[in-house]
């Protein structure tokens, strides 16, 4: 199976990045992701400190999808996420968003390194957390600019959505020939808000993916997600309410075009059955998602 390795890492999502892997539609391939802050974490004894950082959510290369052209979208199905055996979470005064009102005394640099084994995160001798692996960064190269891998936008990027996980499909717009897929920043688990700044439990991983090509609906301006039981719209902005408005608007358009609702009927129904939340409050733009169970998609 073809593999994008950690040998070449990019910290920008750019159409100018040299291609490191080329795959055909429907061809399974793997991506070996690096830790969000570089290669410093090797054993359970290693502890985070800011001077060890050598990158920010690096992408494992730049992946060319044969036949992808502007106006299409990549339907990226996540077949598997194999986690490394160690991970970490951390926060420091420069990265903590809540110092002015949450902390009464300065905490300094706080971090925790954990073992990951058998589908479990060993938080302590008494506390174990089931893994819920997710991919924080998935993006296609935009036609203009070269956003950093810590950024997000209509191209995807550092969206940090827990539902970008095994068995689900992420839809990303294609802006340039080949799509130029960038992937990184895997978490073993992550709570809503990503409040620590460093995850979630940040870790390396080997991801197995399969990409198909579809025509992008003209009304689709932001990435979309689909699970076996739900459709999920995405918006990224600041303040958080603007991110929510984008996600809500994208959901209504999706329901109208693909499922036959009128705008007003979709709006009224969403008032009863919508699930929505902010998945991260730490990136340059916040991420909001809107979720609708497929069982309700019948006008």
UniProtKB/TrEMBL annotation:
One of its GO terms (molecular function) is hydrolase activity, acting on carbon-nitrogen (but not peptide) bonds, in linear amides. Pfam families: FmdA_AmdA. Transmembrane segments: none annotated. InterPro entries: FmdA_AmdA (IPR004304). This is Putative acetamidase/formamidase. It comes from Vecturithrix granuli.
């Amino acid at each position: 199976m073809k593999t994008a390795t950690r040998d070449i890492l990019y910290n920008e999502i750019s159409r100018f990045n040299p291609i490191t892997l080329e795959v055909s539609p429907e061809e399974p391939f793997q991506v070996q992701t690096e830790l969000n802050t570089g290669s410093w974490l090797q054993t359970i004894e290693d502890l985070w400190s800011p001077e060890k950082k050598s990158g920010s959510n690096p992408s494992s290369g730049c992946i060319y999808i044969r036949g992808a052209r502007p106006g299409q979208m990549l339907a990226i199905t996540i077949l598997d996420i194999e986690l490394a055996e160690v991970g970490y979470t951390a926060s420091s005064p420069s990265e903590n968003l809540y110092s002015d009102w949450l902390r009464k005394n300065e905490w300094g640099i706080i971090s925790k390194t954990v073992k990951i084994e058998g589908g479990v995160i060993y938080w302590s001798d008494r506390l174990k957390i089931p893994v819920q692996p997710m991919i924080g960064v998935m993006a296609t190269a935009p036609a203009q600019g070269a956003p950093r891998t810590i950024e997000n936008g209509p191209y995807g990027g550092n969206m940090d959505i827990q539902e970008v996980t095994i068995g689900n499909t992420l839809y990303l717009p294609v802006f340039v020939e080949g799509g130029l897929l960038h992937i990184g920043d895997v978490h073993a688990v992550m709570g809503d808000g990503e409040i620590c700044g460093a995850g979630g439990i940040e870790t390396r991983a080997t991801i197995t993916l399969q990409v198909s090509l579809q025509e992008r609906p003209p009304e689709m301006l932001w990435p979309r997600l689909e699970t076996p039981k739900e459709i999920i719209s995405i918006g990224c902005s600041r303040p958080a309410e603007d991110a929510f408005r984008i996600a809500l608007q994208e959901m209504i358009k999706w329901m109208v075009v693909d499922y036959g609702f009128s705008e007003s009927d979709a709006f009224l129904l969403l008032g009863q059955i919508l699930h929505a939340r902010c998945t991260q409050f730490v990136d340059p733009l916040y991420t909001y998602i809107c979720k609708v169970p497929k069982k309700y998609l019948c006008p």
